[in-house]
Amino acid sequence: MFVAQPIEWTDKGVVMLDQRRLPTEEISYTYTDYREVAQAIREMVIRGAPAIGVAAAMGAALGLLHSTASSIDALQSEFPEICDTLAKTRPTAVDLFWALERMKRRFAELCATSKSLSEIKRAMVEEAKLVHLEKKATDQAIGEYGAQFMPAQGQVMTQCNAGALATGGIGTALGVIRVAYQQGKKLHVLVPETRPYLQGSRLTAWELHKGGIPLTLITDNMVGHFLKTGKVGAVVTGADRIAANGDTANKIGTYQIAVLAKENNVPFYIAAPVSTFDLSIPDGDHIPIEERSAAEVTHLQGLRIAPDVHAAHPAFDVTPSRYIVAIFTERGVARAPYTTALRDLAAAPQPVVASA
Amino acid sequence: MFVAQPIEWTDKGVVMLDQRRLPTEEISYTYTDYREVAQAIREMVIRGAPAIGVAAAMGAALGLLHSTASSIDALQSEFPEICDTLAKTRPTAVDLFWALERMKRRFAELCATSKSLSEIKRAMVEEAKLVHLEKKATDQAIGEYGAQFMPAQGQVMTQCNAGALATGGIGTALGVIRVAYQQGKKLHVLVPETRPYLQGSRLTAWELHKGGIPLTLITDNMVGHFLKTGKVGAVVTGADRIAANGDTANKIGTYQIAVLAKENNVPFYIAAPVSTFDLSIPDGDHIPIEERSAAEVTHLQGLRIAPDVHAAHPAFDVTPSRYIVAIFTERGVARAPYTTALRDLAAAPQPVVASA
Predict the structure, then answer these.
(1) Which of B255, B316, B251, B200 is nearest to A224 (CA)?
(2) Chain A hits for B4, Cβ within 8 Å
(3) pTM to 2 decimals?
(4) Residues on chain B touching A219 (C-beta within 8 angstroms)
(5) More exposed terminus of chain B, fewer Cβ within 10 Å: N or C?
(6) Is the CB of residue B247 less than 8 Å away from at least one CB of chain A?
(7) Domains, chain A, ranges and CATH?
């Protein structure tokens, strides 16, 4: 089955699919310079926190691979500049910093123990590929835990794009749907378009369509109508941040879908890696909501669609955990009471991934 | 305060504002031929059931006014063709047929009692203007009944466009907001853009902005977030059809706003004329939902915004009456139990309007 490849390490360089041009054009670029990778992250050729982490790791490896440094010392003096350039692209994407820290740690280990420049370069490329493999394994595990909660047949709903394009694996929420579908469950996916950026119509509809999974695209104000009348068996979305009590920040619109699901007795689930947990905050009131440009509401692809009025653009909202029936992670399934369930999963071992 | 004039009878002809081009262009046409009025209705220069009714009445008067018939008999033989042309424009708009029936009835009366062609023509123009005046009086009465339920200050939310553009008066839901604002209530209106047609951003935001009433435009998936966090004092929307038990069909998205309002203890109101009641059906399950073109979801102003996938486009949804705190009409306010309240209002006398 088709799985979108937002990013791939190849012998020719880092290949990236330009997500800004989907669904009308499928254009990929091959980068051989880490500065190109940094620019691609900044300009949103690639998006989705896990996918950005993979891009940063590959960018760091690319910078080392093509370095002309003639000694390990010289390579060591170049690496901070490479990492800084990659770090300055999307200041709020946690996975980006996590990936760069990991690459720095591995680089320090290798410099302390390796015999040659080529050995270090080769091992750093392997590390970047391992970061990618781990994302894939995480998605697969989330998908398998979640798939059992999907109905044997009928409609399921998602929100935004928590698919392969966002993670570099099979996706989180879409990974759950994909695994269930591959297990033989006859699912039909209701895809809200997810204004203002249209990640639902542009990305999720495209992924499902290419993967041969049946779908119906709807506007965001049809969600309630379909939950009331459409015999929907489950809703599953991704998450950007999950507080200690299970309150979950995700793309704007998720909260209202969760309320409408509960009102209509449709189970609402979150699919997200353990790295999304933020156990340092007690509840959703402590999650800041990013306010983005109002022009993204009043304009669409450069076209003015509203008069010159005040518009709001909170990019995320918070779904209180009382609306969430379960949270699927790569380490298992959390259910209420979430405070203990999330703490237990955070302390559980991460599934081991074979080296690339 | 500015009130949009979607249609006006003038000495030069019927003047219509082209609502298709709002908010970027404010263009009016002056029609002197009833066939132009029919075309304008069909092509949606004007929309909104009450406004379409006014247009049909004015079109009928225009057809008679410019007739070259030299006798009452000749005029009588021309009128059915005029009415038929106007009737064949929007087959489902109830107000259109109601307005034409009224014009036919008045014409028959006048032909039976009048002395001259010019007397009949003048009286038919007066009848069309009276239809318009009655719409204005109905809106004003709805606005005054509803305004007392608006908070003294703070945010209120609406949906779609139930404004002056839709009725030819001050609007129903927007009429309530307008009267409350003029009474000194410090309101700030949250306007959902109302995909796929964007009546919220294109029409409601335009009307409020021109009228100097503060507003914030939001996308339809922000509704829940703002009801949860935005200190909203009331929600008021229009209605397309109200069943005997108070279940209300209105623009898609209304149902989910009502559920989210109740969940967050925000009162949800309907503002609509008694002509919207359909007491022949017991509840909302008997209201058919019009399914419109999927291309309206996958394209925006001719621009493709989704891949070539299946899309749904129910144009309306049904809000069960248990979510509706009150229904404002021109004859008073209905509250639960709606079955008796609506029956009483339907039997109450219509407010009398002075002749034009």
Answers:
(1) B255
(2) none
(3) 0.93
(4) 195-196, 220, 252-253, 297, 313
(5) N
(6) no
(7) 7-140 (1.20.120.420), 142-347 (3.40.50.10470)
